[in-house]
Design brief:
Blueprint: H1 3-19, H2 31-42, H3 51-59, H4 68-84, H5 92-101, H6 109-127, H7 136-147, H8 151-159, H9 163-176, E1 186-187, E2 193-194, H10 196-204, H11 219-227
Antiparallel strand pairs: 1-2
Helix pairs in contact: 1-4, 1-6, 3-4, 4-5, 5-7, 6-7
């Protein structure tokens, strides 16, 4: 196991310990969708809640629950570990949205800090692993929407000059350049984060020269970059 993957596993274990203080509580919600048996299961010990139930709650609308933030908070370790290891079959963007709806940044400091540590460890591991368990766009989208900031993750990418990081860069460019989505790119399940100004600027400056892609030289992109107040192209630019 690589040092970065080990660091991620350590952060996930710390997340489990931080959230272990979240005691079971009587869960009330939509009996039509979950039934009394399902609500009883969610009210019991965390390790006895089935994976299918965790997946269902992870994507369910908050209005299904009397106390959605508390329920999502309690299930967070069971949601996040399989998400970052690529074993959770729920849209990553939707996970970010639900975390925002659960107001995760307002949780007690040990809980919120443990989650922030996972974001950082996950991003470092991703930049050093190609292919990664989760596609680079989904990883970047989730942590950007959840933290409502893109620049720190791009700065970390700039500083990571590894073959894996460059391979991820090529993957991302292929993704966002398809039909020139980069010109109006929003991240998140509900398009919560407008990423075009920061990401386009980064691709044409800090990341320039790391990947050969003629699409980045399109006159329309260069003009859009200037109109958005982008920085001058990197000296490495063609």
């Amino acid at each position: 196991m690589s040092p970065h993957r080990q660091h991620l596993m350590t952060a996930l274990d710390a997340l489990d310990r931080a959230f272990a203080r979240e005691e079971p509580f009587p869960v009330d919600g939509c009996t039509y969708c979950y039934g009394e048996r399902g609500l009883a299961e969610l009210s019991g010990p965390l390790h006895l809640i089935s994976d299918d139930m965790v997946s269902s709650v992870a994507q369910e609308v908050p209005s299904h629950w009397d106390d959605f933030p508390r329920l999502y908070r309690r299930l967070t370790p069971r949601i996040i570990r399989p998400v970052v290891t690529g074993e959770f079959h729920v849209d990553e963007d939707l996970i970010a949205t639900r975390l925002l709806e659960a107001s995760w940044t307002t949780w007690d400091k040990p809980l919120a800090d443990a989650l922030r540590d996972v974001w950082s460890a996950w991003w470092r591991d991703t930049l050093h692993t190609h292919p990664s368990p989760v596609r680079i766009r989904e990883t970047l989208s989730l942590i950007t929407v959840a933290t409502h900031t893109l620049r720190p993750w791009l700065d970390a990418w700039t500083a990571t000059r590894t073959p894996a990081a460059d391979a991820h860069l090529a993957d991302l460019i292929d993704d966002v350049m398809f039909e020139y989505e980069i010109t109006d790119l929003h991240l998140g399940f509900y398009r919560e984060y407008h990423a075009t100004p920061e990401l386009l600027d980064w691709l044409l400056t800090d990341a320039r020269g790391r990947v050969e892609d003629a699409c980045l030289d399109h006159p329309y992109l260069l003009e859009l970059h200037r109109e958005m107040g982008g920085r001058p192209d990197s000296p490495d630019s063609p």
